[in-house]
Amino acid sequence: MAFKSLLASLVVVVAFLQASQAGVVNKRKTQCPGGSVHQAFNPACCTWFDVLDDLQTNVLFSTCGEASHSALRIVFHDAIGFSRTQKFGGGADGSIIMFGDTELEFAANNGIDEIAGDLKTVADAHGKSYGDIIQLAGAVGVANCAGAPRLSFLAGRPNATAPAPDGTVPDPFQPVDTILARMHDAGFSPDELVALLASHTMAAADKVDVTIPGTPFDSTANVFDSQFFIETQLKGLTFPGTGPNQGEVASPLVGEMRLQSDFALARDHRTACTWQSFVTNHTLMNQRFSDAMDKLSVLGQNTRHFLDCSEVIPHPHSLKVIPHLPAGKTMADIEPACAATPFPDLPTAPGPATTVKPVPPGS
């Protein structure tokens, strides 16, 4: 009898699972109200399609340009204002917009004021929280870049009640020990930090050197590929003399910016092998980046009542990734740092020596 009862129970469970799976498969989108052109699996996400349209039309321009780069940057600068040990900061709470008069004056947040103002305007127009608008814009900005992963988007963050303290954003001129300690305090491992730095594949610097705005961190800033992890491994040019840049190692590519933190992390024994693992594994890079961004997007938040509106995020265009050395460089120009495995053998792009073009403003 016990066996028959168990068998009957299993039949009920299997039937329930089959019905549940069928419900998922057969679930259809519903038309969003108000004459919207959008459809949603979850009608509660319909209002976010309106926000998406506003962002793409008036802020991000549906391109992998300066605005999309800035939208991803503000995600990190807002969320990293959090400490597990000292119990301060609300993490991904939009405080960088809510308390912009304070946080945008921090030296580390130089250059974020424009995207912060644009996102505030959109959030206010649609009655959305600043924490949510930052996360949506970051995910959409990433989706505008071919080859990128499709990030998730959860809605429901309340507006911040206090600003984050200064000093929570790692500085590109800090030692690796300092940067890793700050990230650890926020809950991120060295491997997760490297994954988050995949963001630099679509990044450019405006304020590190104001005389050369829009300077990319790799030679393909308009796509989401692994060239950043390759080009930071090239032997650099050391600044001579006694000036403020003495001893820093610049990119050997004309027109490319190399942050000192990126140079150091690419060569540190705690991060070098993870860094190198992304060079020829675009899928791994995207997955680790997505995982780290998921964690960052809810840092300091109680997600119990959050609404999953990931369906709002556009699907990025695919990209046939062929990792390569920039034109004019050979494997002899690589400075390997992972002791566990050799640096992969890469082809060199044809043509004259690579000159990296700046990202045009307002793109």
UniProtKB/TrEMBL annotation:
Question: Which GO MF terms are attached to this record?
Answer: heme binding; metal ion binding; peroxidase activity
Site (Transition state stabilizer) at 73
The domain of life is Eukaryota
Q: How is the cofactor bound?
A: Binds 1 heme b (iron(II)-protoporphyrin IX) group per subunit. Binds 2 calcium ions per subunit.
> Source species, please?
Rickenella mellea
Q: Which family does it belong to?
A: Belongs to the peroxidase family. Ligninase subfamily.
Q: Spell out the Pfam families in the cross-references.
A: peroxidase, Peroxidase_ext
Top EC class, one word: oxidoreductase
UniProt keywords (A-Z) are: Calcium, Disulfide bond, Glycoprotein, Heme, Iron, Metal-binding, Oxidoreductase, Peroxidase, Signal
> Which cysteines are cross-linked by disulfides?
32-46, 45-309, 64-145, 273-338
**Which protein is depicted?**
Peroxidase
Question: Locate the Plant heme peroxidase family profile domain: which residues?
Answer: 112-342
UniProt xrefs under PROSITE patterns:
PEROXIDASE_1 (PS00435), PEROXIDASE_2 (PS00436), PEROXIDASE_4 (PS50873)
EC number in record: 1.11.1.-
